[in-house]
Write a structure and sequence with these properties.
heterodimer, A: mainly alpha, 6 helices, globular, B: mainly alpha, 9 helices
């Protein structure tokens, strides 16, 4: 089980998302209505911790456990970032979930979210099908 | 219930949850040069199960199979933190949000999701179909088109100071705000 470590880390990530209520439809509504700080507080602490960690990794040339150099590919902008991003935002407000929380919601006992997940898979598949015809 | 066991059921404040989420970024990099990004797992599942003849789904998804273990872990984490040790109280959203949601007929008591909107019976109503099936489709289509989601762009992309991710996140919010104010109120009336 060479991937067991990712299962454990995923478990940790799922617990934090759930306990932080980032998987709550109510919290997402509160966020999009700018009426509460919980979600903004999460982003405003997670991102600086991420920035600092990545800076430390680069500054001290920290390697992976297996000794490989750590590689972070740059993202190449295209129109999909805007159009697709907006479409995802519409779905985020409806479902109250981005992809990570979908899995956590199912685990938390909301079985019907399995349908949302299947539908998200269908959406991904349809994007793959239409990819050449969409502006990028 | 003792003070200590009661603690297990409490939700965590942002200043605990946020930094821990941020630490997932270096943890994945150090564990095996992996970049945080949950929506990629949806593509991997499509590639593994129904690649059809779509070039975008023909790649060595097995090389990315760590992501499937990661999302399986998220599901287990949700079970532990949301089911076994789930907070029995209503999510403590602001009174203004409670008021707005009540005005739209949403029950804000109990659970992480409004149970009246997200259940198997509600699924068969037009409102339920829009919230779960259509909403889910938009999440899957939009994240892949945008090349990432809240984790891949919002956490990973911004942590590595990539401006395309910042644009993506701004557009996520634009879509979310438009939906919240101009679409959701009508969906909830159905």
């Amino acid at each position: 089980m060479k991937h067991l470590k990712y299962l454990i880390l995923g478990c940790f990530f799922g617990i934090v998302l759930t306990k932080g209520e980032a998987i709550s439809w109510f919290r997402i509504q509160e966020m999009f209505r700018f009426q509460g700080f919980q979600m903004y507080g999460i982003f405003m602490t997670a991102i600086p911790v991420g920035i600092l960690s990545v800076w430390i990794i680069r500054r001290f040339h920290i390697r992976t456990l297996r000794g490989e150099a750590i590689y972070i590919p740059s993202k190449r902008f295209h129109k999909g970032y805007v159009i697709g991003g907006f479409i995802f935002g519409l779905g985020w407000a409806l479902t109250g979930a981005c992809p990570g929380p979908l899995f956590a919601q199912i685990g938390a006992g909301f079985g019907v979210i399995l349908v949302t997940l299947l539908s998200a898979l269908a959406g991904t598949w349809v994007y793959a099908l239409l990819r050449k015809k969409l502006p990028h | 219930m003792s003070v200590w066991t009661a603690f297990l059921y409490h939700p965590w404040p942002w200043y605990i949850a946020g930094p821990l989420i941020g630490l997932t970024v270096p943890a994945l990099l150090v564990l095996g040069n992996k970049r945080l990004g949950v929506s990629s797992s949806l593509r991997d599942i499509c590639a593994a199960c129904v690649p059809a003849r779509i070039p975008f789904l023909h790649y060595n998804w097995k090389r990315e199979s760590w992501n499937l273990f990661f999302v399986a872990g998220i599901l287990i984490g949700g079970f532990v933190a949301g089911y076994l040790f789930g907070n029995p109280m209503a999510v403590a959203i602001s009174p203004a949000t409670v008021q707005d949601l009540h005005n739209m007929g949403v029950d804000t008591t109990g659970g992480l999701l409004p149970a009246g909107l997200f259940n198997w019976h509600a699924l068969l109503t037009i409102r339920g179909l829009l919230l779960t099936v259509v909403g889910g489709f938009l999440v899957g289509f939009g994240t892949r088109y945008a090349g990432g989601c809240t984790s891949g762009h919002g956490i990973m992309g911004l942590s590595t100071l990539q401006w395309p991710s910042l644009i993506a996140v701004i557009c996520f919010f634009a879509g979310g705000i438009v939906c919240t104010y101009f679409i959701l109120p009508y969906v909830l009336q159905l």
